[in-house]
Design a protein that fits this description.
heterodimer, A: flat, B: mainly alpha, MetI-like fold, 2 domains
Chain lengths: ~280, ~290
């Protein structure tokens, strides 16, 4: 009973603080603090619900148990992180996005190809590409190479479509200006069109971060060596060791948000001139 | 529209040509190996024919996949067993029902959250960052856990898969609807005020109608995500039924043709569902006078 009372109190308190804070003028501190308080209240509510209602830790472990498991099994989590995030997701991400970027520049020279490839690319980007995972695991074996291949296939089309769209984002006036400067194709590409395409390119890069992690983890469900986040999740679920599963999810969440955040930071540095970035301080 | 047809056809034809070429390249070692064992010399033409007709090829040729799809759909309908457990219609139906339920739940949740976010400042500031953060988490990773845990408390069948679809599809709806409900300009909102409109009238007659284009765009993204969720949700249940199960069973037994036919069916399903939403979008927006 005590736990439930605690949960309700913390929830009421958190909501009260947040509504006070959010009705004050918006500053940088409040816009960071409010979601933080919301998240903390959620964790306290979770803990008190699990303990108050006596939910079996096999179904839903309390956050403290997850934290304990996390601290206890850092070496396993680290090995899985290296296998899945660094070897599988990151290498696939770099290859896939790089290939898509170069393909987009190549396609850009031929309007005919562009008109054909954009609709096809948009179509493919909406397909359940993750289904390719078993095939690619069959082709490239169980180790990280097959995971990287899945990631390449998954990130390629969103990235391609975004880059091609971005390269079209200059208007005739700007291109004419470049021509009056006697700038050739390459110079126009480097000085005008690529910079102008950057907001689109980063949009694609940000979408691809999440896809890369998902691809690498799900591909491990179809076969993997005895380490990796996807492998650990599927085997630990089988052993009903849900605290370890949750610890892996925490790792995945940190990696995912960190990866996305890093891309957003680079975007901010590269596209500082764009209205969407200039508006914010 | 018409001027795009030729380029698209060219690209698709190129893709098919690449596919056939890749099938030759990938299946050739096996074909040569078989020929060497049988002590035969394989000419180029014979080898190509062989690579396009293997039982368990590394990459089946398009016509093999098409034949397999026909065998498990059209031919079974003709035989009067269109809904037997071996037919792709049956598996598509299983996957589709989970997708549709998850999509509906996700849309409802997304719209509700969006209304809350637009009308309540506290919710806007506390929930919105978490909605965005929730998508940087590779949520598909916890699909097996959701399935197993819900099974343990006695919920099985459609709902666990639909939950995963829901989680994937609510995000685009929230983001699109928040944008859409906020799309009326200050001038329009002021106009509603001068007419002495109640908040609910402002909502039903101004905010909701003007959010429709945003809603439909997000629904398309959400539908594609739902289907992915349903397919992945079928993996950990141990390959019972559904397109995801066909993928897994095919990967266990090395039935590449079966994998590809399930994959193509899933792609067709995705295209059909997204196309359906596009159709509803066009009709609705036309009747609202927005196009």
């Amino acid at each position: 009973m005590g736990w439930l009372v605690l949960g309700t109190t913390v929830w009421a308190l958190g909501w009260w603080i947040n509504s006070r804070l959010s009705h004050r003028p918006k500053t940088r501190q409040t816009s960071l603090l409010v979601p933080l308080i919301f998240g903390l209240t959620l964790i306290v509510i979770w803990e008190s619900l699990v303990r108050g209602l006596d939910i079996s830790p096999i179904l839903l472990p309390p956050p403290t148990a997850i934290a304990a498991t996390f601290a206890k099994s850092t070496h396993i989590l680290w090995a899985d992180f290296v296998q899945t995030a660094l070897k599988g997701a990151l290498s696939g991400y770099i290859i896939g996005c790089g290939a898509a970027f170069l393909t987009a520049i190549a396609i850009d020279r031929f309007p005919f190809l562009q008109r054909g490839l954009l609709p096809v690319g948009n179509f493919v980007a909406a397909l359940p590409i993750i289904g390719m995972a078993p095939i690619l695991v069959m082709w490239f074996g169980f180790d990280w190479q097959s995971k990287a291949a899945v990631v390449v296939v998954m990130v390629f089309f969103p990235m391609l479509v975004n880059t091609v769209q971005g390269l079209q984002d200059t208007d005739a006036m700007q291109r004419d200006l470049m021509r009056t400067y006697a700038a050739g194709y390459w110079k126009t590409l480097l000085k005008l069109r690529l910079p102008a395409a950057m907001p689109f390119v980063f949009n694609g890069l940000k979408i691809a971060t999440t896809l890369a992690l998902i691809g690498a983890i799900v591909a491990e469900f179809f076969g993997s060596p005895i380490k990796g986040m996807g492998f650990r999740i599927s085997t630990s679920v089988g052993q009903l060791a849900l605290d370890l599963v949750w610890a892996e999810i925490v790792v995945a969440a940190i990696v995912g948000s960190g990866f996305y955040g890093a891309m957003a930071l680079i975007e901010k540095a590269v596209t500082f001139w764009h209205p969407s970035q200039r508006g914010r301080t | 529209m018409m001027r795009n047809v030729l380029p698209i056809l060219t690209v698709v034809a190129t893709l098919f040509a690449l596919w056939y070429g890749a099938a030759v390249a990938l299946n050739a070692p096996w074909a040569r190996d078989q020929a060497a064992r049988a002590g035969q010399e394989l000419g180029f033409g014979a080898m190509v024919a062989e690579t396009w007709s293997q039982e368990k090829p590394k990459l089946p040729a398009p016509h093999q996949v098409a034949a397999e799809i026909w065998k498990t759909t059209g031919a079974m309908v003709l035989a009067g067993r269109g809904f037997s457990k071996r037919s792709l219609f049956y598996h598509s139906w299983i996957t589709f029902s989970a997708t549709a339920l998850g999509f509906l739940l996700g849309t409802a949740l997304g719209v509700a959250l969006a209304i809350g976010i637009v009308y309540n400042r506290t919710m806007d500031m506390s929930v919105m960052p978490w909605v965005i953060a929730s998508q940087t988490i590779p949520i598909l990773a916890i699909a097996p856990m959701i399935i197993v845990v819900l099974n343990a408390v006695g919920i099985s069948g459609l709902l666990p898969k639909a939950m995963i679809s829901m989680y994937l599809s609510f995000f685009p709806v929230v983001v699109g609807m928040v944008k859409g409900l906020r799309s009326p300009s200050a001038m329009q909102l002021d106009q509603m005020r001068t007419w002495n409109a109640t908040p609910s009238q402002t909502f039903w007659r101004l905010r909701l109608p003007s959010s429709m284009p945003y809603l439909f765009t997000s629904l398309k993204v959400g539908m594609a995500a739902s289907l992915v969720g349903a397919i992945v949700g079928e993996l950990p249940t141990g390959a019972v039924a559904g397109l995801g199960a066909r993928l897994l069973a095919g990967s266990y037994y090395g039935q590449t043709i079966q994998i590809w036919s399930a994959l193509i069916t899933a792609a067709t399903l995705a295209a059909a569902l997204v196309g359906l939403i596009g159709l509803v979008q066009r009709i609705t927006l036309k009747r609202m006078g927005m196009v």
